[in-house]
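Give me the fold.
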Amino acid sequence: MSIAELFTPERILLEPECSSKKRALETLAELLASGDDGPGTGATFEALSAREKLGSTGLGHGIAIPHGRLGELNDPRVAVLRLDRGVDFDAMDHEPVDILIGLLVPEAATSEHLDLLAQLARGISQPDTIASLRRAADTRGLEGALRAAFASG
């Protein structure tokens, strides 16, 4: 599965105000949990938080990829949150994070989880990609930049 297939406008948000890492994770959990067949926001937040307790998912350059697994989830899903001002995310480079790409996969999808994470990490490692995500004026533009960046899977 290509990560590009998982981007949906309903799970992309440009957020002008976010006060903390916790609030960013809560917002990302709300996006990931949205939809009729979605897991609850609380369970989603707990899955993301449990992973963060193992070590920050802040990659550097203002990017974080919070991720987790949930038993009640049938298919992988991705959500994207872009903040106007970054928040402290305990990233390795100590830079604030303003682009969060959340990944949630079914509990048993270990290899798919790793493959999707690898796709995200490869795609987001390009400076041009990061710049295009920051330049997007609205949700539609951000979705287009994401699809272009990750089209090759």
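The longest strand covers residues 77-87.
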